[in-house]
Sequence to fold (476 residues):
Amino acid sequence: SPCGFYTGFDSDNSSGDFSEANHKVAEMLDLDPHQSNRSGKHNGETEIQENGIKRHRTSLPAPMFSRSDFSVWSILKKCIGLELSKITMPIVFNEPLSFLQRITEYMEHIYLINKACSHADPLERMQAVAAFAVSAVASQWERTGKPFNPLLGETYELTREDLGFRFISEQVSHHPPISAFYSEGLNKDFIFHGSIYPKLKFWGKSIEAEPRGTITLELLKHNEAYTWTNPTCCVHNVIIGKLWLEQYGTVEIVNHSTGDKCVLNFKPCGLFGKELHRVEGYIQDKNRKKLCVIYGKWTECLWCTDPTTYETYKKNERRGGEQKKSKPSEDVIKSENDEADDMPEVQDTVQFIPGSKLLWRINCRPPNSSQMYNFTSFAVSLNELEKGMEAILAPTDCRLRPDIRNMENGNMDVASKEKERLEEKQRAARKERARDEVEWHTRWFHQGTNPYTGTSDWLYSGGYFDRDFSDCPDIY
Fold:
């Protein structure tokens, strides 16, 4: 989410009761600030490849610390009966990215949007869009760190000429926390936008984030618009054992031009973990005729086949016929089986149905990913602050947040103090606005109606890339 499952914890409503935990973090970690930048390169230096495309960084300046000395339960037990959005979690449970940067991870598999744009057949376009919707949650696999809650008015921009898009997001509301985003193809071939506000529930052993808000993808050449909402994200073992994550619920992708619909069922784990990570669904036309069946895992790959082949295969399976399995990669099996208590054992990966077409396969993570909060290569590059960037970024951009920057560099005690300072500054600003009866005005997005679903949505007002940042708020 990306659900960013703890989003909403770091509230400026917090009484600050839990902040002493933040100070203990630095003492326990005993990090040497002089060793924080292990990359050997200055944070701002960017290599240029021979073909003229910038090479983005491949690792973080400092490795992550161990969370094994900390118990989420020691924090949460003080919170029974409290609303989760009023709790400040110690920084040790964070990852060094803002939730706005986490949302940007939707764009990691942008090649699927390009594929959708290139197809003449609407069924193939829907298949590519369905794969894109599934790939958007794939980066969350094993990402159990909490992204930083964006401050009200915080922004994040990303332009990737090599990937052909630019992206802008803004935290448009603090209570409830709402993040709005807008992205466009540099070739004017697509627009992708939406707003996300996860509704959190604490179930004792797990935390569930139900993502509210509509996601819209417009393929301009085909004059088509697709809308959907993300599945529910749940993090298990928040009290004891190894944290693990599942996505479940039904995702309906509607093509508003043709009436085609893709219904994807993200299956809950089930007894013995039989259904863990599974996605199964179908595409139907406006007359409800099934055009194809989609199956796979959101942590691995997605296939499609025609409904008759699928039904025949399933019947055969029920009779106990011999099934071919796609050969899973060893690291997938290891990571799915090598879990702690209460983590269901998973022996199989995706069963391949002969004649199926591959729609999407997850990217390999960098070899040092486990020392970097299980980031993908794309995620590693998101908080990179290149030389000369500060001069052109909005002063509200996440890359300029001192708490995230210090955490990334391994300076945990400074990061913890900065986080507290920023939350206090946000509280004070809100009190001042209340006293002067001044309303908060968003800068780059406005509240409106989604033109396709008719529901309330946050829409991009335009103008960000003109770079007039004169009236941006001072939030850091």
Remarks:
- The two ends are 25 Å apart (CA to CA).
- Residues 72-246+389-466 form one domain.
- The CA atoms of residues 177 and 197 lie 6 Å apart.
- Confidence is low (pLDDT under 50) at residues 1-45, 323-341, 343-347.
